[in-house]
């Protein structure tokens, strides 16, 4: 039997907009100080995992997170636009509260996870799911039997969790998805399977690595997109 492809699916570190509960979508927002700390901790946690190829969304918050891993593994970061966050159209740049106030009908359709809905010129949910899942499946098949790290966004990882767990696209999210946690999947020709999710052990105070920024939170709510 063919050896499975090991996948480390990694959400980027925190940005200022994550902390503000502000929709980033495909706007190019950098990591903040906590996000850079998270990326360093994440890289140290993965340096001994035998990763053979490193892929990232081309948005800088993902690239900056991937760069920390590249620094400890010696791998080149291979950027892929198909790993970008969902395009949220007119929602981008607004907080949850602002969206509810300014576009209540669209906000309801977004919360209900309508597959064909894209907010204000944004990407429909079903199209985003297809793009995200197909991008990672193609990487896994191309590197069959290897160990890959893929740095992307909360929405992308949500789609892959659903694909691996056989959860419908319209079902509410009940699982955590924090910044810079470690998520493990396997791929075989039969599809994806879930091994571990939202591992944040590398943020423990006794874990090796640089000191944590003292005035900033290390994790963000699971629902924060980006």
Describe the model:
The protein has a single domain (5-181), classed as Phosphoglycerate mutase-like (Rossmann fold), CATH 3.40.50. Helices cover 34% and strands 16% of the residues. The protein is built from seven helices and six strands. The protein has helices at 16-19, 33-46, 60-73, 96-102, 104-111, 125-142, 154-165, and strands at 5-11, 53-56, 77-79, 147-152, 182-188, 191-199. α4 (96-102) crosses α5 and α6 packs across α7 (154-165). The chain is globular.
What is the strand and helix layout of this fold?
Blueprint: E1 5-11, H1 16-19, H2 33-46, E2 53-56, H3 60-73, E3 77-79, H4 96-102, H5 104-111, H6 125-142, E4 147-152, H7 154-165, E5 182-188, E6 191-199
Parallel strand pairs: 1-4, 2-3, 2-4
Antiparallel strand pairs: 1-5, 5-6
Major sheet strand order: 3-2-4-1-5-6
Distance N to C terminus: 37 Å
Class inferred from helices and paired strands: alpha/beta
Any idea what the radius of gyration is? 17 Å
Q: How much strand?
A: 15-25%
Spell the H/E element sequence.
Answer: EHHEHEHHHEHEE
How much helix, percentage-wise, in residues?
A: 25-40%
- So, CATH architecture? 3-Layer(aba) Sandwich
Oligomeric form: single chain
Q: Which ranges are low-confidence, i.e. pLDDT below 50, for 5 or more consecutive residues?
A: 214-223
Count of distinct strands: 6
User: How many discrete structural domains?
Assistant: 1
What fold name stands as the CATH topology? Rossmann fold
CATH secondary-structure class: Alpha Beta
Main β-sheet description: 6 strands, mixed
**CATH level 4 superfamily:** Phosphoglycerate mutase-like
Instruction: Write down the overall geometry.
Output: globular
What's the mean pLDDT score? 93
């Amino acid at each position: 039997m063919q050896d499975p492809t090991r996948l480390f699916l990694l959400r980027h570190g925190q940005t200022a907009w994550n902390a503000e509960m502000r929709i980033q979508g495909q706007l190019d927002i950098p990591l903040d100080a906590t996000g850079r700390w998270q990326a360093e901790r994440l890289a140290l946690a993965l340096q001994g995992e035998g990763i053979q190829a490193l892929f990232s969304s081309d948005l800088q918050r993902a690239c900056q997170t991937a760069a920390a891993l590249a620094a400890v593994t010696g791998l080149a970061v291979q950027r892929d636009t198909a790993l970008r966050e969902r395009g949220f159209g007119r929602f981008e740049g607004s907080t949850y509260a602002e969206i509810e106030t300014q576009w209540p009908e669209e906000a309801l359709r977004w919360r209900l996870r309508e597959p064909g809905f894209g907010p204000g010129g944004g990407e429909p949910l079903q199209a985003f799911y297809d793009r995200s899942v197909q991008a990672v499946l193609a990487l896994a098949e191309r590197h069959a039997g290897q160990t890959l790290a893929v740095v992307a966004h909360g929405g992308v990882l949500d789609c892959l969790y659903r694909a691996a767990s056989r959860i419908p696209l319209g079902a509410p999210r009940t699982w955590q998805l924090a910044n810079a946690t470690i998520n493990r999947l396997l791929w075989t020709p039969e599809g994806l399977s879930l091994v571990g999710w939202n591992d944040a052990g590398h943020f423990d105070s006794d874990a090796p690595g640089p000191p944590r920024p003292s005035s900033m939170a290390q994790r963000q709510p699971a629902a924060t997109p980006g």
